[in-house]
Amino acid sequence: MIEVRRLRVLRALADHGTVTAAAEVLHLTPSAVSQQLAALESEVGQELLERRGRRVAITSAGRLLLTHADTILTEVERAEDAMRLYADGTTGELRIAAFATAISLLVAPTLARLRDSTPGLHLVIQDAEGHQALTQLLDGEVDLAVTVEHRGSPHDDRLTLTPLYAEPFVAVLPPTHPAALSPDPVDLTALATDDWVMTSVGNPIRDVVLLACEQSGFQPRIVHTSDDFRSVAALCAANAGVSLVPRLTLPPTTPAAIRPLQPPTPTRRVLAATRRARADHPLITATLKTLAETAGSLDL
């Protein structure tokens, strides 16, 4: 008989790479994780792990078991939801992770609407960048993630994705920049020799901007780094460089010059992600519906 909790331990190890990282996510000690994995090997009669220096790697038998583990864990989660719905399918708590702009533009208005339409739903919101939100979703820390599509985004069959909106990028320029003084949309090649203000490594915005510059035939000279778009605008206004940012991230008034870009315009595609096992939960479907309605009202 295979213990389901041990399959969760194996999945955590596969997702996070080390016994220590898996233990942290599962709120266990590393020795407890090792004991659970050893017990699982005894249950299935196969070696699931092999040592590679200080790290462990999952064997082919372990990878085969993982394919079944994902199905089993999905069905267990569905069974748990079914029991909760049987008791009360109209009330409950939903935890949402979203990046800052999405919280202000989407999640907060959605929360206000759901207070009227679904009064039994209690939303708990936490700030997380797109890639962090997906990790929290897969680890079971949240029930829904508002995230962004970016280059290198892995496809994961455990997730269901719902497109919300596509937001164009705009150029953020010093007011005296020649491109700021022209009434025409900015040709990205005109910014090839400028200093740049860029988001940090790992931020999906950076990937979109770097790809747009690459497609225009140059690599931007990155001098300043900030993930706060008000700071980006302030630096550009101070003639410290130029930048590209999603249009809705900027406040209504900014000291920098904001200009549209010539096509093809890079865009930020915003998605809602849920675990496939819970995609049809009534509280999640109600939240997704309201998120989509809110997104449809944005001034894009």
Mean pLDDT: 91
- Distance between the terminal alpha carbons, to the nearest Å? 54 Å
Largest sheet: 7 strands, mixed
- Helix count, DSSP H or I runs of 4 or more residues: 10
Strand content: 15-25%
**Helix amount, in percent?**
40-55%
Give the beta-strand count. Answer: 11
Global Rg? 23 Å
Structural class: alpha/beta
Q: Ranges with pLDDT <50 over ≥5 residues? A: none
Q: How would you sum up this structure, described in words?
A:
The protein has 300 residues and is an alpha/beta fold. 44% of the residues lie in helices and 23% in strands. It contains ten helices and eleven strands. Strands 3, 4, 5, 6, 9, 10 and 11 form a seven-stranded mixed beta sheet that branches. Strands 1-2 form a two-stranded antiparallel ribbon. The protein has a two-stranded parallel ribbon with strand order 7-8. A hairpin with a 2-residue loop joins strand 1 and strand 2 (55-58). Helix 1 crosses helix 2 (19-26) and helix 2 packs across helix 3 (30-44). It is globular, with a radius of gyration of 23 Å. 35% of the residues are buried. The model has no long low-confidence stretch (mean pLDDT 91).
Features:
44% helix, 300 residues, seven-stranded mixed sheet
What is the gist of this entry?
With 300 residues, this protein is α/β, with parallel strands linked by helices. It has helices spanning 4-16, 19-26, 30-44, 60-87, 100-117, 130-138, 178-181, 204-215, 229-237, 282-296, and strands at 49-52, 55-58, 92-98, 121-127, 144-149, 159-173, 195-198, 221-225, 243-246, 257-259, 267-275.
